[in-house]
Design goal:
By secondary structure, this protein is an all-alpha fold. The protein folds into 2 domains: 44 residues; 156 residues, Tetracycline Repressor, domain 2 (Orthogonal Bundle). It is built from 11 helices and no strands. α5 crosses α7. The longest helix has 30 residues. It is globular and about 55 Å long.
């Protein structure tokens, strides 16, 4: 009879769990210490993660910590939007709800968000900044019910990246009551996008009424194109 080897027990935490534990422990320190080794070391100590494991979890300390922060904010936004009656709203209201939900999640960590934006504005971090903005815009559009798979998939997200990033820059300096200036700014940006979409739809409609190249060619040759 062949003896069976005992199955190895699964570790109490996988890397994703450990990474989250370190990040959540470090989160309150981000405003003071920024996206630094000091902040990560604090989080690791609080989560009982050794140095070797920490290095594996966050091989690029600053960038990985910013990425964790952005991912956390996206998750908070998603959770809030699941409890929002988006299906009863117009598209512009759904997008506004998404931006608002993310700002609400970041509000207790506004200084940390400001530091993250400054970090991502550095030239060497431009690729990461683009990636994180794209992820946020994509999640906002998916929550809003977007199912496009054509070129609009990319244009919608690209435009929303601009709307969201400019709104965040306004929010960082907004000291008005209830952040009134930020949301007025957001309303104006969304209105600009809606006007552009109407213009684009109008152009498309007019172009669809123009004769096709084969029709024009038929007029010159005296032949009608096949039906």
């Amino acid at each position: 009879m062949t003896a069976h080897k005992p199955r190895s027990k699964k570790p109490p935490h996988d890397d994703a769990d450990l990474r989250r534990a370190v990040f959540e422990a470090a989160l309150p320190r981000l405003a003071e210490d920024g996206f630094t080794d000091k902040t990560l070391n604090y989080g690791a100590a609080a989560a009982n993660v050794d140095v070797a494991t920490l290095t594996r979890l966050f091989p690029r300390p600053g960038q990985d910590l910013v990425e964790a922060f952005s991912g956390w904010a996206d998750e908070q936004m998603d959770a809030a939007l699941k409890n929002t009656p988006l299906s009863e709203m117009k598209i512009r209201e759904r997008i506004k709800a998404g931006v608002n939900a993310r700002i609400v999640a970041l509000r207790p960590y506004k200084e940390a968000a400001r530091r993250a934006a400054a970090f991502l504005s550095l030239p060497q971090n431009a690729p990461l900044a683009t990636t994180l903005l794209w992820r946020t815009a994509d999640r906002m559009w998916r929550a809003a019910g977007d199912t496009s798979t054509d070129f609009n998939f990319y244009t919608k997200r690209g435009i929303l990246m601009g709307v969201y990033s400019s709104t965040m820059l306004r929010w960082f300096t907004d000291d008005t009551e209830d952040e009134k200036d930020t949301f007025e700014f957001l309303d104006a940006r969304i209105e600009n996008v809606m006007q552009f979409e109407k213009f684009k739809a109008g152009v498309h409609e007019q172009l669809s009424k123009l004769p096709s190249f084969s029709d024009i060619l038929g007029q010159f040759t005296g032949r009608r194109p096949p039906a």
